[in-house]
DNA sequence: TGCTAAATCTCGAAC
DNA sequence: GTTCGAGGTTTAGCA
């Protein structure tokens, strides 16, 4: 069955009344919808916004997620996460599309004065997605091979609850001194250093306690802050970590990692 | 000129070789492109990812932003911010589309084994976007009407540089005591409290110094932390702030706000 | 449900 | 160019 509709010339407009009917039916069938057209948008909920008319690309996904994109930039100008309900109406020569979110209560109201492209398709997507060189990969690699940080380091636990939050890794160095490790997959900034400092402060008792930031790089202004707070930095490349993981998993020696994660 | 192409029945596929040509031309003309089809994706750059074949919606914007969406969820599964360059190729019965980012060096490689919809359109979008009840609105409202926090409070400056960053607002209370104010448009969490604490700590001299978190709500576990750190909380609704702003702007008494922002 | 922190976060502004 | 913090951030993982 044909669910896609296109104008026969660029920027010519589809009849809005019919498009409204098609859109309503596509949404009822939980299809993935793409609308390109000139629309204005009002958002009301946690915040409130108003967007005047302009050429936009609107996506409605099969789980009820809504994305309204301008012709530039990564971010949608308006949106709604999945589980939205939709209401379609043709009135006063406009195609009105309303997205309603229950909790928190929010609405996004679109008014189309022209639609250049409409499509409703059933998309099947069971493809597996794998991400490598994330912070999780760094943590896994460090747990399997703690000497990536320093010789003799032993991991005691990961995601240890410390008063203000969670420390990524908690361990003990060769001398038996406790070590708290904070991992960042990007250049560690001031905030990361303070985060570690808060963990160290919250955990510190009478025994000595080291705090180490592990990241591919340290922010420029952070070097001084780090020294002031008596913390340490150890450089580590996330790509290297994911390669170490790949090698270990190939040789089937990754059974012991589960107990830490 | 027709730039949109649609199959004449749902899920029927467009000829990939022709689609590759159309895509290449649309990109050359800096059009906004939508491709719906079955594709696999490899990303390599700051991190690395692999996505197996499945039904996807691909957006390429006029500034070179790339979004690859699965049929569910708010977030794209793969993406690239604006300023990408693209390379199109038809080979081995596949339509290959490569997005290249210069800095940081990253690539996203898409392999289409089927395309259900292709569209390239020139979208004009000069529409103005206005956001209300943001953190900035809260700040503006507080500057114009400091007694929203407490009677007798005077604003000294906003965005005051304190050692580790910026305090939202710096002022003096009725008794002449200095006050640092940290604004959050959402429930203030532990991190917000610690952020304010760091500002207060960095600024504190011999004189007394108050720190106040202004937000619509305070996170549950934060109440104790706040007391421990000797900080204060003042409830304030961002929607109320935007209404106050709207009223003031209507009555034209907003001339004095510029000097603070 | 609430809290905690990551994210290939993006984006814009300031220095 | 780097740094910094906001964002209607969203999302996933846990207690």
Description:
- The structure is a homodimer of 261-residue chains.
- Chain A is α+β, with helices and mostly antiparallel strands and 261 residues long.
- Helices cover 22% and strands 39% of the residues of chain A.
- The first copy, chain A, has helices at residues 16-28, 135-144, 190-203, 222-228, 238-250; strands spanning 32-44, 48-60, 66-69, 78-80, 85-91, 94-101, 106-121, 129-132, 154-162, 165-172, 178-183, 209-215, 232-235.
- In chain A, the strands form two sheets. Chain A has a seven-stranded antiparallel beta sheet, with helices on one face.
- In chain A, helix 2 (135-144) packs across helix 5 (238-250).
- Chain A is elongated.
- Chain A starts with 15 loop residues before the first helix and ends in an 11-residue tail after the last helix.
- At the A-B interface, strand 1, strand 2, strand 7, strand 8 and helix 3 of A face strand 1, strand 2, strand 7, strand 8 and helix 3 of B.
- The structure holds a DNA duplex (15 and 15 nucleotides).
Break the fold down into its secondary structure elements and pairings.
Two copies of one chain form a homodimer.
Chain A: H1 16-28, E1 32-44, E2 48-60, E3 66-69, E4 78-80, E5 85-91, E6 94-101, E7 106-121, E8 129-132, H2 135-144, E9 154-162, E10 165-172, E11 178-183, H3 190-203, E12 209-215, H4 222-228, E13 232-235, H5 238-250
Parallel strand pairs in A: 11-12, 12-13
Antiparallel strand pairs in A: 1-2, 1-7, 2-3, 3-4, 5-6, 6-7, 9-10, 10-11
Helix pairs in contact in A: 2-5
The first copy, chain A, binds a DNA duplex (15 and 15 nucleotides) through strand 4 and helix 3.
